[in-house]
């Protein structure tokens, strides 16, 4: 007689959908106090989950932590650039690393494949190898990356939609984003 196999269970660090949703909303809400609570919860998840923590959750937490520190006014401009810089470098490296094969593939190509704006990869390159960029550019990079994470990871988890926008709003945002990216490409490194 065949034994009936039980469905495989996936163990996760969060208690359930409600906790996941609460953290997701807290991270993206813009209120520093609620963001800090969400960051504390992510830290608890990380202590339970360790190296199995999803990269997107880890990257989101690092970037939100930068925004919380920025809004606190406790860090100097240079310290904020370094904080944002580390989070952005880690994001690009960790997200593109999964697509890296035995043969080295340029980061710009990998970024295109996962729809990360090329100027974010250029920002990562400048942070890693060049002169540190302006704080405003680091903030913009953080916002763009957080939006990318929200759209490609958070809103897809558990069938969730963090932001429901009409198609017209999406088109307007894409147009604005393209104009801003063109601006950043032209004068970002001045």
Describe this structure in words.
It comes from Himantopus himantopus. This is LAS1L protein. InterPro entries: Las1 (IPR007174). It holds the Pfam family Las1. Residues 163-190 are annotated as: Disordered. By secondary structure, this protein is mainly α. The protein has a domain at 55-158. Helix content is 67%, strand content 0%. The chain has helices at residues 17-28, 32-49, 55-72, 77-97, 107-113, 118-129, 135-152, 167-187. Helix 3 runs antiparallel to helix 4. It is globular.
What topology does this entry show?
Blueprint lengths: L16 H12 L3 H18 L5 H18 L4 H21 L9 H7 L4 H12 L5 H18 L14 H21 L3
Summary?
With 190 residues, this protein is mainly α.
Radius of gyration: 18 Å
The share of residues in helices is 55-70%
Per the principal axes of the C-alpha atoms, what is the gross shape?
globular
Helix and strand content put the structural class at mainly alpha
Low-pLDDT stretches: 160-190
Q: Number of DSSP helices?
A: 8
Considering the chains and any ligands shown, give keywords for the structure:
LAS1L protein, mainly alpha, single chain, 67% helix, 190 residues, Las1, endonuclease activity, 0% strand
